[in-house]
Amino acid sequence: MNKPTLLLLLCLSLTAAFPKSRRLNEHAKRKLEESTVDISGTWKPIRIKFEYVTDADLQTKEFLNQIFSICGTFLSKHLLIRRSSDKIQLTQDAPAQFKEFFEMSTDMLSVQHDADLVFFVNTMNDSNDSTLAFCAPVIFDDKTKRPIFGAIGWNMAYSQVSTLTNAGFEAQLATAVHEIIHGLGFVEDLFNQFYDSATGEVYPDGGMIEEDDVVKIITPRVLAFARKHFACDDISGVPMEQEGGDGTAGSHWERTLFYNEMMTGNDMVSDFVLTDFTFQLLQDTGYYRLADYKPDILTWGEGEGCNFYDSMCESDFSEFCSDEGSVGCAITHNGIGVCSSDDLSNSCKYYQIDPNLDCRNANSAGYSDNAATFQDFGYHSMCVIGGFSASSGTPQKFSCYKYSCDGTFTITVNGKSIDCSNGGEKTLEGLSGSITCPENYKQFCENADECPNQCNKRGFCMKGQCTCYGNYYGSGCEQENCTKVRKGTECVDSCPTGYYLNEVVNYCIGCPGYCASCSSYNACTQCQDGYELREGFCDLLSSSSYSSHLEILILLSIVLFS
Ligand SMILES: *[C@@H]1O[C@H](CO)[C@@H](O)[C@H](O)[C@H]1NC(C)=O
Ligand SMILES: *[C@@H]1O[C@H](CO)[C@@H](O)[C@H](O)[C@H]1NC(C)=O
Ligand SMILES: *[C@@H]1O[C@H](CO)[C@@H](O)[C@H](O)[C@H]1NC(C)=O
Predict the structure, then answer these.
(1) How far, in Å, CA of 237 to CA of 313, rounded?
(2) Does the keyword Transferase feature in the UniProt annotation (predicted)?
């Protein structure tokens, strides 16, 4: 096993103040660079284990156990690794490597862990420190270079455990998933160590470049996906955050281009999305491949073209606002916000959701006249321009109302449905005020990613689907005690044809990501359109090669029919 003395700490920070972090030392870097990768293993679901080394009280430990169990279940369901050995064990010099995080007793060295990755979780309780949590990969596997031991620090000062609402719990979970993804290898110092899992070779031009102090990812899947997402074939490197200082800059997606992606660099009031930017980067590490998954979609910048990518708020895109302090619906429609910039947004302004006006949070305080203006907060609610009131109130300029994307697009106010499928301004009989139907409702509905009651503190929500921990199941993990196997939201006797049991989490899963037919969860035989089959998995064709295929087809058909 490789033995770097210490890696950098990757933090999700609350506000502007960022803690110092260390970089991978030169010795560790060289060791990683010199070792060759063994690509002989088959892909199996990752088993992640959390060891609590904190002396915190029982309630705190139970809370941590709950969030990390959910994270572990979610990642085991989706991520596959090449397993070098069934058990992993720390080496004699581990106490020195973990010294900065906690005092490791020598007893811990004799433990054999039934896991592929173990995180030691410690806590702090410091409201003067803006760090919510940090995570670092510490020890790496000799054969695959993959992290196998890591450290997590959690600041309890920002986890009001006894009063957490479902939305509050979901925000804590997003922090936990964010940190663990750093622990999986999403760190600047490893980008140049990433390798092609099909060959074991590092990428010919490396994993990143640095241009004008901006770190840009140049690994193939991330590049291909960025070109597709932004609809810009000219993208030659995907920018990471350059603000926020050490520990934030370089190791997170740039806020101005990625807004609420879960791997952006600080916390925000919003529904974080876990998108293919992060999943493709995880696959580009060489350490991971993806089983069946449906990522969240980033609305921000979707299909906006090279101009968005190049000039961001200097051009007139609806993602940004210009009138500082003005009020409006957030681009994702999930809350009412104030136009302002944040510490990572390169001075670009957007509608930052007011914590009291987060439409998705059933416990939002809302306005003082919620009842008179029929505000409705919860996972099924969205921000709409305009509002209604009974005779006793004044309509709000922006409101949270219930919506449905089921067939038609409807907004529901005070029990009455308004068909908003064809846009326009709408009034309701007997009420004063009006609403303007959202223009881009199709994009909004296609990207809808909320889960019932945010999975009731029992699961992690991605693209509207809860992955539940323990034996929970159901669309919001509300059902208990599945003693058989789980498939989607159901508890079933056994996995049906076309599904394969992931024994680590007791879920039936289908073919790998973007695969059309397969013989197992790790063996695709045919990919969906636009994806290329490589070693049993599907990779996005880079848009330029995809469009040149199309050109060839078009040329051929012209020749054939002329
Ligand atoms: C953290 O510190 C605060 C204030 O000192 C205290 O009230 C709270 O109980 C502590 N939380 C934990 C989990 O120890
Ligand atoms: C936070 O800082 C204040 C002022 O410096 C100090 O009085 C307080 O004890 C600190 N709190 C913690 C938890 O360290
Ligand atoms: C699930 O199992 C637990 C423990 O055996 C039990 O207390 C609980 O009532 C069960 N719940 C349901 C819905 O069967």
Answers:
(1) 19
(2) no
